[in-house]
Amino acid sequence: MVLEKAAKPGRKILMSGGGRCNFTNYNISADNYLCANPHFVKSALSKYTQWDFLSLINKYKIKFHERDHGQLFCDDSAKDILNLLLAECELGNVNYCYQCEISKIERINNQFLIVDSQLRDFACESLIVATGGLSIPSMKGDGLGYRIAEQFKMPCLPRRAGLVPFTASGELKAVCDSLSGMAWQSEVSVNDGRFLDPLLFTHRGLSGPAALQISNYWLPGDAVTIDLYPQGDLYQALLDAKAEHSQQKVRTALGQLLSRALIGHLPFTNNSAHLDQSIGNVKNIDLKAIADACQQWRVKPTATEGYRTAEVTIGGVDTNWLSSKTMESHTVPRLYFVGEVVDVVGWLGGYNFQWA
């Protein structure tokens, strides 16, 4: 029996991947996940791999395609994935109860009694909590899974929004406003995270795959480092331009290596005056400072956009209290926690769907 709060199944699946559902990735390992216990995910990922899920995809003859970084999407619609899951449930004689509002759970005589405030009560020997997290409030995730864990004395780690855009203020906000709508391939890093992906400038701040990926590693107050020329050594490229076209303005040389729009709005510390000089007249030390400003651009986001636009929730049920092989609670027999409600979060690119 599936107890579902929504009126229909799979709403989050249907909206994922722009309606085409990024259902898994060709390249999956424990390194693609964040967890307070980094070894916890290894067992589950080895027991049910991306190849196992792809065999299911092929069983139902679902057409799919690969995008950047091994991401796999449906050719047609996310409905293909939902229909696959519903068909598998039908094979397992699964029943459903929709619009279910759970008000209380009790454990009586080795059974769980689940009290629905509007419909009826349910009793079961095994209870699997797959409630998701707090991301995308329109999906009505209200933290029920965390409350169930805490009711049974299982600790939850602090939660925050993940895979989420950044907001900006001050000088950074002005730059983002000026470049709003522009996406630029960048290498973005903070703490232990480093990603090479498009960075999107918006009126609110920074978005796009690069910002979403790095948001999982960012904490308030952290400075994010952006490399706008990740394909090589920008200083050396400027030296080459100086040797070949000494009369060319620095701004022109940079515009050919990067983008005129970027050059017009990025802060160049104390070297902006050199941009309109002939590159042959600019000292190498000043060219180095300009290159560093582009390849080591440090910005401090004000915050993230929070759960409103977050794709996942970071934190959740402490994995030290769960079996890594079965997801069963160490302290409450036949109580299981799976998916986003657990303190496991994956990168952007099908990793969270595979984990679920």
Overview of the molecule:
The model has no long low-confidence stretch (mean pLDDT 94). By secondary structure, the chain is of the alpha+beta class. The strands form 7 sheets. Strands 17-16-13-14-15-12-18 form a 7-stranded antiparallel sheet. The protein has a 3-stranded antiparallel sheet with strand order 2-5-4. Strands 7-8-9 form a 3-stranded antiparallel sheet, with no helix packed on it. Helix 8 packs across helix 9. The chain starts with a strand and ends with a helix. It has 12 helices and 21 strands.
- Order of neighbouring strands in the sheet with most strands: 17-16-13-14-15-12-18
- β-sheet strand percentage: 15-25%
- Kindly state the percentage of residues in helix: 25-40%
Task: List the uncertain runs.
Answer: none
Task: Based on Cα principal axes, name the global outline.
Answer: elongated
Q: Count of DSSP helices?
A: 12
Record field, number of beta strands: 21
* Structural class estimated from helices and strands: alpha+beta
Using the CA coordinates, give the radius of gyration: 25 Å
Task: Write down the overall mean pLDDT.
Answer: 94
Alpha carbon gap, first and last residue: 18 Å
For the sheet with most strands, the description reads:
7 strands, antiparallel
Topology:
Blueprint: E1 2-3, H1 11-15, E2 22-25, E3 33-34, H2 40-47, H3 50-59, E4 64-66, E5 71-74, H4 79-91, E6 96-97, E7 102-108, E8 111-116, E9 121-124, E10 127-129, H5 144-151, E11 156-162, E12 166-167, H6 170-178, E13 183-190, E14 193-201, E15 205-207, H7 208-215, E16 224-227, H8 234-244, H9 250-257, H10 260-265, H11 284-295, E17 297-299, E18 303-304, E19 312-317, E20 335-337, E21 345-346, H12 351-355
Parallel strand pairs: 1-6, 10-20
Antiparallel strand pairs: 2-5, 3-21, 4-5, 7-8, 8-9, 11-19, 12-15, 12-18, 13-14, 13-16, 14-15, 16-17
Helix pairs in contact: 8-9, 8-11
